[in-house]
Amino acid sequence: MLKKILLFFIAVIALTACDDDLKYTGDERVLYQGRITDANGSPLQGIPVSVYISKEGYSGLYYNSISDTDIISYTTTDAGGNYKMFYPAPRNQNNIALLVNYQNAYNPQNTTYSSTSFQNLIPENLSDNKLNFEDIKLFEVANATTLNININNAGGYAISKLNLVGLIDKNEVDYNFNLPLEDQNYNYQESYLVAKNQTVTLKYQTRTYINDNTLISNHEVQIAIGSEPVNYTLEF
Fold first, then answer.
1. Model pLDDT for residues 137-147, shown as the tens digit of each residue
2. Percentage of the residues of the chain whose pLDDT score is greater than 70
3. List of E strands, the chain
4. How far apart are the C-alpha atoms of 202 and 165, rounded to whole Å?
5. pLDDT in tens, 177-192
6. CB atoms within 10 A of CB 51
7. Residue-range domain boundaries for the chain
8. Fold category of 28-137 in CATH
9. Which residues contact 184 (CB under 8 A, 6 or more apart)?
10. What's the whole-model pTM score?
């Protein structure tokens, strides 16, 4: 009898642990592909590219307790800057991200160039189980200055999301920016390393409550970057 009880509890613990793990379909594959270039459009060879999947945990957009994460696929770019990765489709993920020029267990980062990631990828982004990111530009971090963003919330709105579009180091791009964020504990940067002599787009999403209804609005502004550090105040 005691043996049966112990086996029962072991089975319950095993099933509970499985609920926290990432799960994948056995017969469905997803293809990510694209091309990595420098700021002038010339292909970059040997840049590490990987697919990061998380269940709960830090998705790059918000924080929760970590239960499981995987680098499910990785490669490096060829002489033409091209990459192609297949991976099994996940079934219970919270976030899928494409990591460009981030070190993984098998490939080091190219420290000459910036890194970037595309977060919040969802199955609806796929066409016939494929997603082509096309050209992604990196820049030499030696040719960089800083951009500091100050938030001046005078209208009583809350920031739901904030993204920069341009040549930015360690940028976390929300691939589905216009979708509302389910978790309200959003984490955004205030200081960025950016390429000199460019114009970046600051996209931000605000949230407010009117008569028990949530109003989500998307906005964007242009910020000119020269050769010197920039302090920009976002007022809304």
1. 999 999 999 99
2. 83
3. 24-37, 48-56, 66-76, 82-90, 95-100, 116-119, 130-137, 144-152, 158-165, 171-174, 191-195, 198-210, 213-225, 230-235
4. 7
5. 988 766 555 667 889 9
6. 21
7. 28-137, 144-235
8. Immunoglobulin-like (2.60.40)
9. 158, 160, 207
10. 0.83
